[in-house]
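Troubleshooting log. The previous structure file for this entry was overwritten by mistake, so regenerating from the original sequence record. Sequence copied from the archived sheet and checked twice against the printout by T.R.
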Amino acid sequence: MKFDTLKDDLLALADTGLKYAKNQGADQAEIYVSSMHNININNQSGMIEAKDGLNEGIGVRVAIGKCLGFAAMSGLTDDALKHAVSEALSVAKSVKQDNEGFDSFVSKGKVGKDGILDSKIVEMSTEELVQSANSIYLEAKNFDKRVISPSAQVQSFYGGHAVVNSEGVAGASKATVFVIVTFTTAAEGEKRKSAFDFKVTREVPEFENIGAKAAEKAVKLLDSKPMEHTGVLPTLWNPNVMSSFWQMSLAQSINGRQVVEKNSYFMDKLGDQVGIGKLSVTDDGQLPEGLNTTAIDHEGATRQTTPIIEKGVLRSFLYDSYYGRLGKVKSTGNADRRQGYESTPTISSSTVVITPGTKSFDKMVSSIDKGVYVMDNVMGMGHSNLISGDFSVVATSAYLIEKGEISHPLEPITIAGNLYKSFKDIQTIGSDSKLLQAVKTPSMLFDGFTVVG
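Regenerated output below.
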């Protein structure tokens, strides 16, 4: 399918599937079709691996009364479509118990807007991406003789999805995405230090200095020294680290399914003050530059901007149509299929956006008498307790701050605290917002975490 006509082509196929499902006896049906082209170039120490692939398929959900069936098939052919419908109907007929939470698939609503689309990503050849990855690799390799084992990964994605259902939904979206990731290790004697840099964007980015920046970080870390301190200290986290912080702290606490099933820390706190007055968080499914911005979500609901926290007050959770119905609220347009057409929708944020403050990064540093600057990477955030919020991470890229200045790099330190309670321990919100894969966040200065090193 051509990218220019992709929406129309996907919609036409999905509409054919809907008509076939109704003709075969489905009371209700939802047809999801997707097409995604991906070029992935990985330059590992000068060895290049190139993958150029197309992932296309169909996911069908049908209802017979309140009995649901799902099936998926790869390919976008009439035969694949009919087979998926037949299999989904067979599953629905074999179900012996009604799904009491189901009423209908998502209702028809307004269609939102797609994010930024860049035709250059569609037009770029594998050879051009190989050259880009090679230039990033050489940048890192030639930065300093202590740099070893640099790598560069360049990926381009373009494609789209469409959803048609028996409730009148007929929508489609398409996207272009470009990702650059570079890892570098520096060695001196027995010491080894690693660092990375990256860019994620919906347009072809500038490539200059990405490899050199990662190499510079790794080389600087060779001068790291032990912290030799245990206690509560101010910690300044840059956007790279804050991205994983927000993903962990919000992944379960604002998920409508977890709220309905009473597994969310914030489930009974709507309207309560959960953070400092300057903290505002939205889920923005219409952010033009957001990687997950689409006109519709993955069950056909309108992508929208949902206020999660306003001036420290918890305002909303995120829902798809199923758990919205169980929670007696409308879908917030956050249905997502993480495994593509092979999976049924689950709830996921689009782009979490933290409203930036007014203080620059340098001014935040200058306000700290003694503290720690945490940059780029922490280990263990994914093992945080999402029920209680307790966490303990190892910061492998951190610097000591003394008398308002960044001093020297530190050997790995442990930072421990509580994700949810820390919303009230934010001392300063920076002005330096950066877009990452699923989060747009500035730096944050916390006062209340325990540092051990």
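The radius of gyration is 24 Å. Archived copy saved in two places this time.
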